[in-house]
Amino acid sequence: MICCALGQDSHRFEEEKDKPLVLGGVLIEGERGLKANSDGDVLLHALTNAVSGVTGRNILGPVADALCRAGETDSRTYLREALNDLERLGGRILHVSFSVEAKRPRLFPHIPAIKESVAALLGLAPAHVGLTATSGEGLTGFGRGEGMQVLCLITAELKDAAGDKKGEGEA
User: Fold this and answer.
1) Is the pTM of this model over 0.85?
2) Is residue 54 within 8 Å of residue 154, measured between CB atoms?
3) Sign of dihedral through CA atoms 3, 41, 121, 97?
């Protein structure tokens, strides 16, 4: 069975410059990080939420909070938790697409590195990772530079609930 799920996440920028900005597992030099109890990787948080939309188990919230309390603030760990759930269901991600709304940073120069990083995390070719960005013409706080918002759509393949492959068991 093929299914899709939508994930979203948003964070404000930190006031201080000492926290780095991490997007899709890539350090974006010279930019303020995002306010969060984790590394604030808004792309991976949206992706984790999308995977949770397929598996039915929310990772961001109690699971991620417990990991943070234990000192684990790398958002790749939260994504791995969600991907483990997907794997237990016999599923895999086929394609992922991100849409970022933010005034800054200018993402265009970072898109190839972010796509490579996300592709490696998911076991995909970079061509199966889409990433677009907009300022939204400054109509929201994200477009005015107060933070970042990410929407993430995934396409995943799951084993049929009965464990049958399409067409098996039909007369």
Assistant:
1) yes
2) yes
3) positive
Percentage of the chain beyond pLDDT 70 is 93
DSSP state of 159: -
DSSP annotation string for 25-80: TEEEEEEE-B-SSS---HHHHHHHHHHHHHHS---TTHHHHHHHHTT---HHHHHH
Q: pLDDT of 20-31, one tens digit each?
A: 999 999 999 999
Q: How far is CA 7 from CA 60, 96, 154, in A?
A: 11, 11, 8
Tally of residues, the chain: 171
Closest Cα to residue 6, out of 42, 64, 48?
Answer: 48
Taking only the tens place, the pLDDT of each residue in 79-117 is 999 999 999 999 999 999 999 999 999 999 999 999 999
- Lookup result for tokens 């939309």: 53
The two tokens of residue 155 are: 């396409």
Class of domain 2-157: alpha beta
Of the chain, the end-to-end C-alpha distance in Å amounts to 20
Among 125, 145, 124, residue whose Cα is nearest residue 136: 145
